[in-house]
Specification:
disordered N terminus; mainly alpha; 6 helices
Length: 259
């Protein structure tokens, strides 16, 4: 059977299409896979998706860092507020009352107060040299005045001792309260203020100790001054007793009156 030119042309065309089909489809097969969701065509690109995920992770990390920074700043402000918070306790009034009681006891000193001018005046009048011309009555009166001064100073010392001992209970209560405040302090300012009040308590106790030593020293000084003056007075009286007098001088005596 002999083929016509038309038939040979048709066969050649079909062969050409068959050979060209793989070449035409090769770009489609070499391209990434395609996915279809819903209506329309959505192209899925793995490299783009990975880049987007990495960008989102970095953004989330930055947000977390910013949140952590804000939290740190907030905590810093809270700590600063605590450090600036004032101590809600003050022992100043109680300490001032203790000092006031001790000072009042010192101001009530009998006869000779803790005053330089009064001390000088009292020693010029009652202590020191005893005049030979003083009468016996004056010597006795001065000796009694000195004795009363000495006894009064001993009483003053005992009163100051009682006041200082009375402050021990209040000082112990204040010390316990201040130590508790110091241990429970929420910031540096509260701890510092508690420490300062503890130092003030120690200063008040030292002032009580100084007052006690002063009162005792005053009493001891007056006792020694009385002893020294008594010795001087004894010497004067002995000298007056041993000094020869004019003796007996005869005079005219009239037993009976005559008319």
């Amino acid at each position: 059977m002999t083929r016509t030119p038309i038939g040979r042309f048709a066969g050649a065309s079909m062969l050409a299409l068959a050979l060209a089909a793989p070449v035409a489809l090769s770009p489609i097969l070499a391209s990434p896979a395609h996915a279809f969701f819903g209506f329309g065509r959505i192209v899925y690109d793995p490299s783009n998706y990975a880049q987007n995920v990495l960008t989102a992770a970095r953004t989330l990390e930055q947000i977390n860092n910013q949140i952590q920074q804000l939290q740190n700043e907030a905590q810093m402000l809270i700590n600063q507020a605590r450090n600036l918070a004032s101590l809600p306790y003050s022992s100043l009034q109680q300490l001032q009352q203790n000092v006031g009681r001790t000072q009042q006891l010192l101001q009530q000193a009998q006869s000779i107060a803790f005053d330089v001018g009064q001390i000088d005046q009292a020693f010029q009048q009652r202590y020191g040299n005893v005049a030979l011309s003083a009468t016996d009555a004056q010597l006795v009166a001065d000796a009694r005045a000195r004795w009363e001064t000495t006894v009064g100073s001993l009483q003053d010392a005992l009163r100051v001792q009682a006041g200082v001992v009375g402050n021990i209970d209040t000082n112990r209560a204040e010390m316990s309260a201040l130590v508790g405040q110091s241990q429970n302090a929420t910031g540096a300012l509260q701890a510092t203020q508690a420490g300062n009040q503890l130092l003030a308590l120690q200063s008040q106790q030292l002032s009580d100790m100084i007052a006690l030593l002063s009162a005792n020293g005053r009493a001891e000084a007056l006792i020694e001054a009385e002893r020294a003056t008594a010795a001087e007075q004894g010497r004067v009286q002995r000298e007056r007793f041993l000094t020869p007098s004019a003796g007996y001088q005869p005079g005219n005596a009239r037993m009976f009156s005559t008319n």
